Amino acid sequence: MLSTSDASARGSKLTLPTTSLPLLDKEAPFDAAATNVKARKRSLVKWVIAGVILLIVVVLAVVLPVYFTVIKPNNHQSAAASAPSNDGHNSAQPTPSTVPRVAITGGDGSTVTTDDGTKFTYQNKFGGFWVADPNDPLNNNAQPNSWTPPLNQSWDYGKNRIYGVNLGGWLVLEPFISPALYQKYDGASDEWSLSTAMAADTASGGLNQLEDHYKTFITEQDFAAIAGAGLNWIRLPIPFWAVEKWDGEPFLEKVAWKYALKAFQWARKYGLRVNLDLHTIPGSQNGYNHSGKGGSINFLHGVMGYANAQRAMEYMRVITEFISQPAYKDVVVMFGVVNEALANTIGADVLTSFYLEVHDMMRGITGKGAGNGPYMSIHDGFRGISSWSGFLEGSDRIALDTHPYFAFSGQPATEPIATGTGVNAGGKWPTQACNSWAQQMNTSRTGFGVSYAGEFSNGFNDCGLFLNGIGNRHSYGGDCADWEDASLWDESTKAGLMQFTKASMDALGDWFFWTWKIGNSTAGHVESPLWSYSLGLEGGWIPKDPRTALGTCAALGVDGTDFDGVFQSWQLGGAGAGDIPAASTTQFPWPPPTIVGADAVVTELPSYTSTAAIVSLPPPTMTATAATKSVDFGSGWFNAQDTALAPTAISGCQYPDAWDAEDIAVPPLCS
């Protein structure tokens, strides 16, 4: 016979012979001690029963909400997904394996397992929870926090506030965000020159070094941390070469799209909405290093301005087709079509003609009205948002993006921000943020429609390694070394930055901080700390709950003329959306009659012909752990009726350099 210890060690059930159990003698005399034992046993049984009942209540309290918020909706969505579809856009894709139909979800303190098997603890003190159901990979039930509607509910631009961050420097590189990559190659100053240098450095992996950066700079844990920080949106800059590149361009073609798809799925998992921003444009829309190539402006400007605009519009078409598919339309809800096009250089009328054409192209794909494709977002071109009041009235869901920065004002900015830790923290800077931005943002919401700050930062000065580009000087009147190492900052400095941040957030109302993360330089630390949200959270100069910023401007005595939350119906895709008066369409024809920087009418400038095959964006690749049901990730093309061919060079024609064609002689017309 096994001993008790042996049975326990082997995990066996210990069985004793029945003869070892004493028989109860009915005639046995009364035994007080035995009676007390029985009483204690009865009491113990009662407590055990009560404990079991309590446990059942607790389990039901936990399981039922998960069932009704995750599992039951999934079952409903599964049934809906399996029903026949007659939209004619996409066909369902079969899945290759069998996976138990169990929803996977968790809140604060839960363990998350990533695709590569990495595990981490999800931290979210705001009631947010993630959802990653392998049987329903398109589940949109997750919430980043209690005050943000899940992705399967509509966003109310008059009520819900955008608390967002940019993922700058991830898929579109910038020297000040990823300085170590640029420090490795002398002469690299933008992604064009960096890509050229990397391609020549085959010993270090060539252009594949860029994918190494994509893999590591932003990961799923960043998305989890963004949700855990009380934020609810991301703005995701992508390059046009995520779609394709043309001969002579040195960029890493198509690879960035693979990581954009990861971003969409991670955003879905944590309940974050995406503002997808086309950050680079063929020929460059502003001559900045983050446009692809620094230097001249060749988009809607110069001899190749019209041809580059044709090509850019095609990429906008391809992206719109992808993100309008049912699998993505509730995740990617806004599309910024051109980042920071310089309106005063290009010309406001020319830019308006282009935006009107893009608007009509997008709504031709998506259909008109709320729920049909993403909002189209345009940047104010640094003309100031007030100049866009009344823009294309009757259009369908156009949002206005502004990037208010004190850093690039050209001023010395030597007024102190470290002025103590009390009510006067931050010196003049918090009040200046409120006075500069609060009223104009609310006025724009009335005069234009949905308006938001797509970028802002803690940069009250322009200090930061490579912030102004490689080799350029700072305008700050003090010593920038004081602002390029956060470990030197005292509590007064952090308190001042915190107050400045909260004032900026309150004044802007709807915002995306630029940017979530700054990489270390070769010095081993972040040298542009005023621009890193994650570092500010860790260091104590960014609020851990963005809602605490509300009321900051009022406390400083600044009246921002609060917006009442009511937009005109057409601005939100309601009645009248898409009905632009004929006077506007006549005033802004496409193509525009002339372009600045080209000594000829547009019809005499180089152009492309629409005879090339369409290049569409691929959906994600199904994996062995995919759902048991058919899941429609889309084909990459929403509107099957959109069959126009893509632009390409006219055979036999010679074109000027598309990236350097300002103020050159117009070549003979070739057609």
Mean pLDDT over all positions: 87
CATH class of the largest domain: Alpha Beta
For the termini, the CA-CA separation is: 99 Å
Strand order of the largest sheet: 11-10-9-8-7-6-5-12
Number of helices: 15
Count of strand segments: 14
CATH superfamily membership of the largest domain: Glycosidases
Please state the second-level CATH architecture of the largest domain: Alpha-Beta Barrel
Nearest-angstrom radius of gyration?
A: 30 Å
Structure description:
- The chain contains 15 helices and 14 strands.
- It is α/β, with parallel strands linked by helices and 671 residues long.
- The protein is globular.
- It is an enzyme of class 3 (hydrolase).
- Its EC number is 3.2.1.58.
- It comes from Agaricus bisporus var. burnettii (strain JB137-S8 / ATCC MYA-4627 / FGSC 10392) (White button mushroom).
- Residues 78-98 have a biased composition (Polar residues).
SSE inventory with pairings:
Elements: H1 4-10, H2 32-82, E1 105-106, E2 111-113, E3 119-121, E4 130-131, E5 163-166, H3 179-183, H4 191-200, H5 208-217, H6 220-228, E6 233-238, H7 255-270, E7 273-278, H8 305-323, E8 332-336, H9 343-346, H10 348-366, E9 375-379, E10 398-402, H11 429-447, E11 451-453, H12 491-508, E12 511-513, H13 533-539, H14 552-555, H15 582-587, E13 609-612, E14 646-648
Helix pairs in contact: 6-7, 8-10, 11-12
